[in-house]
Amino acid sequence: MLKRIAPLCLAPLIGGTALAADDTANGWYTQGDFTPTQRVRLTISNPLDRARENSPVIITREQLAALPDVHELSITLVDPQGESRPEPTPEHFNRQGGHSSRKETHGRWIPYQLDDLDKDGLWDELFFMTDLDGGESKDLYLYLGDQHYGWEAHRTHAGIGTYVRHNVPFWESENIGWKLWFATDIDVFGKREPVLMSQHLYMDNLDGYGVGLVDPAWGSDIMQVNNSFGGGGIGVFEDDDNPNVVSRSRYTPQGPDDTGFNAGPAGDSRYAYTVLVNGPIRSMVQAKTMNWDSGAGEYEYEQVYTAYAGHSFATSRVTYSTFEPDNAGTDFAVGIRKHVGEDHHYQDGGVVISGAPEAIRNLDDEGLRENDLFVDYVGTALVVPKRYAPEYVYVPGFSENHAYRIEPNAERTFEYLIAAGWSDGVVNQTPEEFQDYVLTVAEEFNAPVQFGGAVLESKD
Question: How far apart are CA 127 and CA 67, in angstroms?
Fold first, then answer.
């Protein structure tokens, strides 16, 4: 019999029907000799009236406050609707050994992460990805009990490496990657096949425009950033007389005007990077900007960039720890570069897309390469959620940019999404495909999967 022990959410548990342990729909999961007797039922729902695929789900530690204090190897996330794995072959065991997943019943364990974001030794978020029909509410289970089965290949990666003599953070999914060659404005790199490869960039110090000569699947850098916002960058609107001018931390009165980099870190803006999470299904980098004196205000902030398995977008959460403008009405700014020769443009509400045929080359390489690569299409996009009431602004400076103005809230924080696609990739190869993808993930970004509570159950 199934016995409900206690609710893990604020709402009290009301009623309930005992279920047989061998009930097909609600049967208890097993894997090899792992036969758990406790589980936590998680209820999630899709607020959209259409299906969504591979959607991120975040459940905080506070929302699972009554979860027993167990080691992470005593937690197994199972989708009861998933196809159970068969027993591995002898060949598989020879390669992967005793930690291989074993024969399952009543569902399939799915990749998940228990991520410690503040580095205090306690996990802060349970993260996983799932499919949901329109308006669907469904249950998944955290099965409790020590078991050591379950290799899972990483599908995202984050790292920090010394790249041409300066520290550069990287984060990537199988389709698209991002890096901060410049301290605050994003370079984008595309893959020709689903693959993780940024570790080769920073460990071997390979040129992003030339890695396709090492392995064509690794693709190429696909955007010239120079002095622009690149694939995503932030700043502040602080000049009422020039409402389409943005102040940015790497262009200050103290620094040189022609390098794209600041002066010395004691007297000018400085930066620090940390890998918070590294795969398998999301990877996160924290980037801190400190000691920024724009000449009309002093600011410090952190960004947390996240890449997601199977997707061509990343997200960023921005939090200002210091926001001391001299001028009233100073607002947040976030933008992307307008592609040179832009022939695909979309803007509506908090969504803007820019695309064009692209010459894949580095301006620092003039006269060095025999051939430049020309591709039919490179597109980048920026999405700011509706709840921040973003106002679109065209920024003609810094090589032309599409940007949004956001009024600061009490928390001095906001979020945004960036995405990219290119004609040499395996997805989002055309302007039409990329726009459809961006509008789909933008709608989901504005309406995330909802958590409906958790209940601890036991089997007598």
Answer: 15
| Per-residue model confidence (pLDDT) at position 11 | 31
Question: Which amino acid is present at 67?
Answer: L
Q: In whole angstroms, give the CA distance from residue 319 to residue 10.
A: 28
**Side chain identity at 355, as an amino acid letter?**
G
Tokens 């995202």, located at residue: 156
CB count within 10 Å of CB 169 equals 24
- Report pLDDT for 20: 41
Residue 144 to residues 75, 88, 147, 204, 270: CA-CA distances in angstroms? 5, 23, 9, 42, 45
| Count of alpha carbons within 13 angstroms of residue 333, beta-carbon side | 27
Which candidate, 41, 31, 45, places its Cα nearest to that of 106? Answer: 31
Q: Answer whether 156's CB lies under 8 Å from 81's CB.
A: no
The DSSP H or E segment spanning 96 is: helix 90-96
AA identity, residue 454: A
Task: Please enumerate in sequence order all residues whose Cβ is within 8 A of that of 436, keeping only pairs 6 or more positions apart, or say none.
Answer: none
> CA-CA distance, 174 to 152, in Å (whole number)?
15
Output Rg (C-alpha) for the chain, integer angstroms: 24
CB 318 within 8 A of CB 415: yes
Spatial CA neighbour of 227 closest among 276, 182, 267? 182
Which stretches of 61-124 are assigned E, i.e. beta strand? 75-79, 104-105, 108-109, 112-115
Rounded to an integer, the average pLDDT of 176-201 is 97
* Chain-centre distance for alpha carbon 449: 15
Contact 40, 144 (CB under 8 A): yes
**What residues contact residue 359 under an 8 Å CB cut-off, 6+ apart?**
372, 373, 374
Number of other residues whose CB lies within 10 A of the CB of residue 47: 14
Rounded to whole angstroms, the Cα distance separating 356 from 253 reads 34
DSSP summary character for residue 34: B
Biggest CA–CA distance in the chain, Å, is 75
How much of the chain, in percent, has pLDDT values that exceed 70?
92
pTM: 0.93
Please check whether residue 427 is in contact with residue 175, taking contact to mean a CB–CB distance below 8 angstroms. yes
Amino acid found at 284: M
**Angle at CA 72, nearest 5°, toward 71 and 76?**
120
Q: Comparing C-alpha atoms, which of 329, 320, 273 is closest to residue 292?
A: 320
